[in-house]
Write a structure and sequence with these properties.
Elements (H helix, E strand, L loop, with lengths): L46 H10 L9 H11 L5 H11 L10 H21 L9 H10 L6 H8 L14 H21 L11 H12 L4
Helix pairs in contact: 1-2, 2-3, 4-5, 4-7
The protein binds calcium ion.
Length: 218
């Protein structure tokens, strides 16, 4: 169940799966008292991460939505487009709440983005502030994903401006590409237990694997 993304719960996408139970008590007790939601952050969460969350969680509900997440990440990291935000939301959402992020997920997401930031900076070799196709290939290879050129091309075709010019990815699009490749590959590996490079999987399993990565795509 645990994954390196801080836990996304793929079984909730299985068409045959029962409905998720309705929202149940998630850690924070009485929402009306003014206790800060920091009590729900994992121990050791940096103060600036907690502050970022609280700054956008204006109603102190202990959860943030798409717009609030966009605000928090854009001021903390870099401007994020909403497509990336929607993917992040799907991958990190609280299992009991549709499309919202609680403190625990926010801390996991923030630390995950920190890792991607490090990779981005390491592989932006010409310091252009963008990742070009070769830099992307090397970055993915560097973290253990030898992605075929044809797959990379297909992936990158989503990010062009239609002019046919070479695609360059900002941090948000880079994170998106990285998470799609990493997420799908890791999901595949779960089915390919003997690391043969091929796997047999059911229709349900296939759809469950792929769908979360498509829903953010408009
Ligand atoms: Ca570059």
């Amino acid at each position: 169940m645990s994954s390196s993304y801080g836990g996304y719960h793929s079984q909730s996408y299985a068409p045959s799966a029962p409905e998720q139970p309705p929202y149940s008590n998630y850690n924070h007790t009485s929402s009306s008292t003014s206790n800060s939601s920091s009590s729900s952050f994992p121990a050791g969460t940096p103060q600036d991460v907690i502050r970022s969350f609280q700054m956008v969680d204006r109603d102190r509900s202990g959860f943030i939505d798409e717009r609030e997440l966009h605000q928090a990440l854009s001021s903390g990291f870099h401007h994020f487009n909403f497509r990336t935000i929607r993917l992040l939301l799907f991958l990190f959402k609280n299992p009991h709440q549709p499309l919202t992020i609680g403190p625990k997920e926010f801390a996991a997401l923030w630390s995950c983005l920190g890792h991607w930031r490090g990779i981005f900076e390491r592989y932006d070799r010409d310091r252009s502030g963008k990742i070009d196709p070769l830099e992307l290939r090397d970055a993915l290879y560097g973290i253990g994903y030898a992605v075929p050129g044809s797959v990379l091309q297909l992936l990158l075709s989503k990010y062009g401006d239609g002019s046919g010019r070479r695609v360059e990815l900002g941090f948000d699009s880079f994170v998106e590409c990285g998470m799609i490749i990493k997420g799908l590959t890791d999901k595949f590996k779960e089915k390919d237990t003997r690391y043969t490079g091929s796997a047999t999987l059911s229709y349900d399993a296939f759809m469950t694997m792929v769908l979360p990565f498509l829903v953010s795509y408009d």
